[in-house]
């Protein structure tokens, strides 16, 4: 149950870390005769302790969120009876979907068998076990990081420099993620377009008068023969845009 509130708890721990660093820097400033005797402002010391404490927690938390579904699914799948292990990938995928839907309280493809119910119970047990472990790990990391970073807070510590560099790195990483996502979208569209035009001639696509996209493009798709003339699509788009602009004007 604690795991469901873990992100909110992490934010609360972040506030705790900030005020720990801030309070200690103010205490040091009072003993030295004022904030002017500190290398950085008290808020920089608070931000330093916050970043040192919260960044490891967020890395562990989001990393686990990404690997949890595949990790638990592989463990549950390996526990299925031998006759299920020999199923085709598509049928086994349907079985795993039923198990996950049963865990989430969703709709399954049919009345759940005892095997499906047992697998769902195992999924829940593994989920709770790993979530309890990850919660304990996060709290342990926080305590260690808070203790270590708060020990570094002193009048000569260059907290402002470290905080500014760290924030710059975070902003650069965020920008890199946005750029790589855009590149990934472009490459995905490009490769799918190349695969499409290997099957459908570009002349037929640009000047064809029939649009019935029913052909299977990939091996995992099913479909009958179809027509991919884009003229009806272009004409429909122009018509809808013209009507919308006319109403707007």
Describe this structure in words.
This protein has eight helices and two strands, in the order αααααααββα. The chain has a two-stranded antiparallel ribbon with strand order 1-2. It is flat and about 85 Å long. The two termini are 55 Å apart. With 249 residues, it is mostly helical. The model has no long low-confidence stretch (mean pLDDT 86). Helices cover 75% and strands 2% of the residues. α1 runs antiparallel to α2 and α1 runs parallel beside α5 (114-151). The longest helix has 41 residues, at 159-199.
Break the fold down into its secondary structure elements and pairings.
Elements: H1 6-32, H2 42-78, H3 82-85, H4 89-104, H5 114-151, H6 159-199, H7 202-207, E1 211-212, E2 227-228, H8 231-248
Antiparallel strand pairs: 1-2
Task: Produce a short descriptive summary.
The chain has 249 residues and is mainly α. The protein has eight helices and two strands.
What structural category characterises the helix and strand content?
mainly alpha
Work out the helicity level. Answer: over 70%
Strand arrangement across the biggest beta sheet: 1-2
**Quantity of strands, as a count:** 2
The portion of residues forming beta strands comes to: under 5%
Characterize the overall form.
flat
Query: Helix count, per DSSP?
Result: 8
- H/E topology pattern: HHHHHHHEEH
Weakly predicted, low-confidence segments:
none
Main sheet record: 2 strands, antiparallel
Give the overall pLDDT as a whole number: 86
Return Rg in Å: 28 Å
Distance between the termini: 55 Å
